[in-house]
Amino acid sequence: MIVQALTTSAAVAIAERRAGRPDAGIRSGRAHTLIERNVLALRTSNTISFLSGFVEPVIFLLAFGYGVGALVGTVSYAGIDASYAAFVAPALLAASAMNGAIFDSTFNVFFKMHFMRVYQAMMSTSLGPLDVALGEIGWAMIRGAAYAVGFLAVMTVAGLATTWWALLLIPAAMLIAFAFASIGMSLTSLMSSFQQLNWLQFVLLPLFLFSGTFFPITAYPEWLQVLVTMTPLWQAVALTRNLAFGVIDLSTLGHVLYFAAIAIVGLYATTRRLDALFLR
User: Considering the entire predicted model, what is its pTM?
Assistant: First the structure.
């Protein structure tokens, strides 16, 4: 009875704080509880999958940056001549942030949504759909930041981070993760079977290979270059390369605004979908 009374009192207090707010129906301000849950899950069962997201870009860096790089030699970027490893490294960081965010916001979210029914239980409490969206996307940002810190340390030890601007790779990875996670979660809310998630690889693999990750897109015909520059991974690669090489200009701001727009649209779409699925 005491526990029930305390729980009821806490729920009443939360409802009183939400009263009169324009977002009272979709947010309680407790998105952090989802992050706490993901931290507990990481400590018990998800550690290997989390660490794999850091190991994978390091393997690609060794295989392509130094293996293929020995054949390529130097590459010019924004008028700066650099080793092929230095050219590839920031792109791999961007791809790592994308992959981690997509994995969390698709496969993990789908399992919680349709098998564990975690979100149904959460939104029967004081949590709203915006809390759930912010919590899951916030966790993806933390994952992106962790990958960025680890990979930036590898870049620094290898002598591939040559400017203090490279420190901005960490918030850049968080922004990239936020954008991809918000879109990924909104798309996942539209899916009804695990088989539909296989379409992600159909999209992600070409993005990874042809978004300028391993070579400049100037190798493409001009019409194809225009299409590639519209893709989110190319925008992410261009942003991280600019920061890694200290090229700070209006194009860098453009990349940031691009991801900010995707993040806002994806967060709105995710909130609406969760509201429609579980609160109607």
Answer: 0.85
Phi and psi angles of residue 80, each rounded to the nearest 5 degrees, phi first: -110, 125
The dihedrals phi and psi of 215, each to the nearest 5 degrees, come to -160, 155
3-state secondary structure of 161: coil
**How far apart (Å, rounded) are the C-alpha atoms in residues 168 and 179?**
17
Rounded to 5°, angle at Cα 166 from 162 and 168: 165
Query: What is the per-residue DSSP string for 25-93?
Result: TT--S-THHHHHHHHHHHHHT-HHHHHHHHHHHHHHIIIIIIIIHHHH-EEEETTEEEEHHHHHHHHHH
Give the Å distances, CA to CA, from 257 to 32, 130, 195, 250, 267: 26, 22, 33, 11, 15
Q: For residue 217, how many C-alpha atoms fall within 13 Å in the half-sphere facing its CB?
A: 23
Q: How far apart are alpha carbons 152 and 166 in whole angstroms?
A: 8
Q: pLDDT tens digits, residue range 24-73? A: 556 677 778 878 887 887 776 666 767 777 788 888 888 888 888 888 88
> Do residues 99 and 106 make contact, with C-beta atoms less than 8 angstroms apart?
no
Q: Which position has the token pair 């004081």? A: 126
In 10 A of CB 127, how many CB atoms?
22
